Amino acid sequence: MAIVEAAEPVVARRRAGAALAALRPRQWSKNLLLFAGLLFAAKTGDATRWGEAVAAFAAYCAASSAAYLINDVRDASYDRLHPVKRGRPVASGELEPRTAVALAAVLATAALGIAGALGLGSLAYMLGFLALQAAYTGGLKHVVLIDVMAIGGLFVLRAAAGAEAVAVRISPWLLVCTALLALFLGLAKRRGELVLVGAEETPGRPVLEGYSLELVDQLVSVVAASTISAYALYTFTARESKAMMATIPFVLFGIFRYLYLIHRRDLGEEPELVLLTDAQTLLCVVAWAVTSAIILLTT
């Protein structure tokens, strides 16, 4: 009897750990985009807006995790055949599908509640975000090119929602740059998947059949060049400050570094891992953010 009672807390901790892993907290770094509106409006000294931005960040972390849970339930059969994804809690059997769905419902409800508290505009953006996530999970991720464009749309919604939450204007150029950068990362992810699936000789997601390394490399080159051009145009015409041109080298190096990593080290499949583990990339992002903040706050 004592052994059974002692085992119950261990099982509970394992289930809690599996649930937490299924939320993919490492990917919450994508939601840092919610703070872009606050930064570029130079409102970083406003405590009220900081509170609103943090609330929006929490809401989109919850919404993102809800989408990951539903995605993992739907893709469990594919994930079990994948050399990396088979370790995900749902695919491995550590987290029951019905538990994952219930947790997703709670998180989505919480996300809508927080967004609603921030205003009708924020609620509309959240509804759009969840709808696009549902469409992506339900079928768009299986449509060649549309899959990465949907990912770009999710990033644009994050950026626009962040600005809406703190009631500031965000430059259309920054939304364009956000979309292009998301396309760049999405295509790099597809490249990483193609490389991994080819190396392991295991089946991947069906949409990969519509891609090839040659096609993806061409698309990555086009989008990388477009991202740099769009960002340069933004700095040339920025209402905030023309001094933002000083940040162009950081954007150039960041993209060059990422291209190096996906071609020489095959790290493109997990963009968030690159951001959190590659010292040069992380330093570049921090340097860009600090320099941008200094320019926007002093000009």
Word description of this protein:
With 299 residues, this protein is mainly α. It has helices spanning 2-22, 36-40, 47-74, 76-79, 89-92, 97-118, 120-138, 146-165, 172-200, 213-237, 248-264, 271-277, 279-298. Helix 7 (120-138) runs antiparallel to helix 8. The termini are far apart. Residues 2-7 have low confidence and may be disordered.
Summarize the structure.
This protein has 299 residues and is mainly α.
Q: What keywords describe this structure?
A:
299 residues; mainly alpha; 74% helix; globular; disordered N terminus
Write the layout of secondary structure elements.
Blueprint: H1 2-22, H2 36-40, H3 47-74, H4 76-79, H5 89-92, H6 97-118, H7 120-138, H8 146-165, H9 172-200, H10 213-237, H11 248-264, H12 271-277, H13 279-298
Helix pairs in contact: 3-6, 3-7, 3-8, 6-7, 7-8, 8-9, 9-10, 10-11, 11-13, 12-13
Spans with pLDDT under 50 lasting ≥5 residues? 2-7
Return the structural class. Answer: mainly alpha
Strand segment tally: 0
Q: Which percent bin holds the helix content?
A: over 70%
Molecular shape? globular
Major sheet size, sense and barrel closure = none
The H-and-E topology, N to C, reads as HHHHHHHHHHHHH
Q: Counting H and I runs of at least 4 residues, what is the number of helices? A: 13
> What is the CA-CA span between the terminal residues?
70 Å
| Rounded average pLDDT | 86
Tell me the radius of gyration.
20 Å
